[in-house]
Amino acid sequence: MTRSTRVVAAGLQLLVAGPLFAQQTTSFTVGSATPGPGKTAYGAISIPAGSDSATNIPVAVIRGVRPGPVVAFVAGSHGTEYSSIVAMQQLIGRIDATKLAGTVIVAPLLNIASFEQMTPHINPIDRKGMNGGYPGDASGTQTARVLAAVTEQIVTPATVVVDLHGGDIDEDLRPYSYWFRGGRAAQDSAGLKLALAFGLDHIIVSDVDPSSPTAGRSLSGIALVRGKTVLVAEAGRSGVVAPSDLKALVDGSLNVLGELHMLDRHVTHVAKPVWLAGAGARVAADSAGVFIAAVARDTRVTKGQVVGHTTDFLGRPTGDIRAPIDGLVTFIRGVPSMWPRATLVNVAPVLSGPGEWKVSRP
């Protein structure tokens, strides 16, 4: 038996047996949502005021009628990634609790202030990113308190964590998912099966060292470190809520439930995914000004190729932006405004195959 065969076999065992399947109990609570078997409950996780203002994380819990996994779908870490937020709202109504095995937690919007104030990338209350500070701190600023509550009430009870994103309001992004690998055969294979089941044909391979002190800083990272099956999927771009992106995210999420035998749903795996390496290489702005893209998202480029131009506020040219490596433009800036350190383009290397898990250790 080859290593890849062992990995798939181990993943199948993880998906269909063992601790992934918790027995149904008469109650299951997340925040103020406590559904009985065969019911959907709506509520919120209350985040008390601390050094800054209080907030609430909206949450729905869908409780099945048979034993099964606990799957958490989380979106809105970045509150202007609208497609993933709206898709998760729609997902709630697409799941029939009376036909469900296990439990589904849906948290469509973690970063309320970002959404309400149309602030990309960060929480405007404390100016911190809401996907880089896990496991959080219940005595910290609002972002840290939110992440502590998500860790305790969503990540901890879940056996599968699906983290949904999309192009932020300034990012013209092509849809893709991530296969996060930590070198544990069963966990890695289970994650791969969900990535292939989700249905996005571009998959970024991200190798993580679970022993690294920084491995658990993102939602996907903390879930991986704590032994959960992990999937990240992204669709949506530049503030546009396109039906095709909503469909990709909703159908993909339902496919996850079908793959886990939580719903009776036929799932067709992606047959020939395009494999991309890691997060890719980004080019950031070195000054404020205007950015004009010269290529579209999903374009294959070569190192040094011009992908955009910059000007000052009077339209006078200030430079060309060039691809930092050979690869695929996974996203490019979708708006003209730029500021120092703003990402202008991201290029990911295209792989012939996913290869073996490998990380560099000091």
Description:
- The chain is of the alpha+beta class.
- It has two domains: 3-275, 3-Layer(aba) Sandwich (Aminopeptidase); 281-351, OB fold (Dihydrolipoamide Acetyltransferase, E2P).
- The chain is built from seven helices and 19 strands.
- The strands form three sheets. Strands 1-2-4-3-5-9-7-8-10-19 form a ten-stranded mixed sheet, with helices on both faces. Strands 6, 11, 13, 16 and 18 form a five-stranded antiparallel sheet that branches. Strands 15-14-12-17 form a four-stranded antiparallel sheet, with no helix packed on it.
- It is globular and about 65 Å long.
Topology:
Elements: H1 3-16, E1 39-47, E2 55-63, E3 66-74, H2 82-94, E4 101-107, H3 112-116, H4 142-155, E5 160-165, E6 171-173, E7 176-181, H5 185-198, E8 202-207, H6 219-225, E9 229-234, H7 243-259, E10 274-277, E11 281-284, E12 289-293, E13 300-301, E14 306-311, E15 317-322, E16 327-333, E17 337-338, E18 343-348, E19 350-351
Parallel strand pairs: 3-4, 3-5, 5-9, 7-8, 8-10
Antiparallel strand pairs: 1-2, 2-4, 6-16, 7-9, 10-19, 11-18, 12-14, 12-17, 13-16, 14-15, 16-18
Helix pairs in contact: 1-5, 2-7, 5-7
